[in-house]
Each structure stands twice: as structure tokens, then as C-alpha cells.
Amino acid sequence: MTDFKSLGLSETLLKAVASEGYTSPTPVQEQSIPPLLEGRDVLGVAQTGTGKTAAFALPVLQIMGRKRPQGKRHIRALILSPTRELAAQIDERFAAYSEHMDIRHRVIFGGVKQNPQVRALQKGLDILVATPGRLLDLIGQGFVDITKVEFFVLDEADRMLDMGFIRDIEKVLKLLPNKRQNLLFSATMPKSIAKLAGSFLNNAVMVDVSPKEMTVDRIEQRIMFLRKADKRRLLVQLIKDERVKCGIVFTRTKHGANRLVKQLDQSNIAAAAIHGNKSQGARTRALAGFKDGSIPILVATDIASRGIDVDGITHVFNYDLPNEPESYVHRIGRTAR
């Protein structure tokens, strides 16, 4: 069995990995870390829950730790993420992995005041995790300089395109230096992603941890045939009969998520919605309640759910079916971690 030491990680990072309770690398980590340590670009097909954050964070930290540039700190690694929640969780991982290193990192996203983010940027950073809108906003104001970036990571690229960020991504790419190492991760690989990857990856190593290789075989799946008018009644019955303590309900629309939360509340089931129209404070409170168990049911849309990385999820309810098979696999895979 492969271990983290055999992948070439330093003793400092091995200590951090052990502190996190990792015993052996996941397939995406095993396939991504060695070429990244060699300085290669990587194109990864992998979903949330496969360990992909460590797959890029660990080698980036190791390479950065080899040599520190002279003078004031500047942004050496830029990680672009589609949602606020996912960006925050990536930053949390960098905090954990760099605990024994002299590394400054920060996450910036919209929906909150920019002043604390600006102050952190002005002190100097090594690693910046960002959502596209806030990044370009602060670049436009002169608070962010990405002209010396050595590592560029584009995470959840398919969702980036789904959310209409392609123009923002293109703007960011034009501002980056030509000489840099690149990594693109996407849960799926449609032609649009392949085209995007081809525009900035150089002789990339392909890493494919597709849904077929994920742990779907460990999940009990059930399908219920019923009238649309009976969906809410059955959902309430299932949640109560199975005494669900940690479950996600997926809806197709933001309005549908809000309406369902109210209906669950009327049935004495504590629930919270998470989607793009919610304020950052509301989304943070919903996730915190879900993690600590005070809110057993989270109602989410597909895009917002990309930022949910919680262990111990026992049930996933597809209240509305997704449009693509890959999204279905991604949804139910949250219970197989």
C-alpha cells in the first residue's frame, strides 16, 4: 500500500498529514502529488470528497517551503474557487497543512465587507484563495497583485462555467505571469472544460478519478414512485421514521429550497437552506449548525452544495432530480466518506 512518505512529502508535511488523521493517500492524491512535486501541470477529473484539496495543497506548500523569495511577501499561489463555502474550506485545509510552516494565507470572497480582507492583503500573503468576483474587484482597486504567482489552481472548473465565470477566469489568466505551474480540477470533463484546460495548461499530466471509481457501491440507494403532491409528506415521514440526524435534501431551485425549509419547520423538523441568494452570514450559520448537529437537515441547491464538506452525512434525499448523471453521483457520494 502506498503511503504519504513514498510520494515524496517532507517530514514537516508528513507531521501535518498525521495530525489530520490521514493514513494513506486517496487515488487522486497518489496520482497528483508526484507530478506536481516535479513541477508538472495537472488536469484532474475528481469531485469534492476525493481528497483533491490535499492533492494540490500539499505539493504547493512543499515547493513553497524549499525557497522563500527575498523582500516583502507576495502572492505565490492563487487558488480560484466557485463558491464562498468551498473557498473557506480550502483555506482551512491550508491552515491545517501549514501549521508547522512560516506561511501566510487568506481567503477572500464577496458578500462580506472587504476591509478585513484588504488589511490582510496589505500585510503580505503567500497563498490566496479567492472567488472570481471579489478577486477581480480587489485587483481593480489595486489591492491584489497576481503578477508574481508561481502556482495557479482552478478548482471545480465545471461549476465555474455553470455559474457564468468563464469571462472572469479569462481576465485572471491574462493577469498571471507566463511562467507558472497550473492545476485544473473538474468533476466532469465536457468539451468546454477541455477547451479551457487547453488554453493554459502546458503538457499536463491527466489524473482521472471519475465517478465509476468512487464509492457508490457502499451506498444503499432507494427510489420512491409517487405523485408530486405527496413528495413533501413522504420526505417528512422518511426523516422522522429513520431518525435522520445528518442529512442533505437537494432541490433544483433556490425558491424551492426556501419553501421546503418552511414546510419542514411546520412539521417540527429543524432545517436550513443554503444557496446563492443567502447572505454569507446566513450560509455560515447554516453550515455551523449542520456541523454541530443543531440543524439535522440541510436543504441545498447543487451549486451551493459544492462547499459542503461534512463527515458523517447519513442520508441524501434527491427531492428534485439533477439534470446530469454526474451531479447525481456527486450528490449521493457525500454519504460514502
Describe this entry's structure for a reader:
- With 337 residues, the chain is α/β, with parallel strands linked by helices.
- It has two domains: 5-210, P-loop containing nucleotide triphosphate hydrolases (Rossmann fold, 3-Layer(aba) Sandwich); 215-335, Rossmann fold (3-Layer(aba) Sandwich), CATH 3.40.50.
- Helices cover 42% and strands 14% of the residues.
- The protein has helices spanning 11-19, 27-37, 52-66, 84-97, 115-123, 132-140, 157-162, 166-175, 191-200, 231-241, 254-266, 280-292, 302-305, 325-332; strands at residues 42-45, 77-80, 105-108, 127-130, 151-154, 181-186, 205-208, 247-250, 271-274, 297-300, 315-318.
- Strands 3-4-2-5-6-1-7 form a seven-stranded parallel β-sheet, sandwiched between helices.
- α2 (27-37) packs parallel to α3 (52-66).
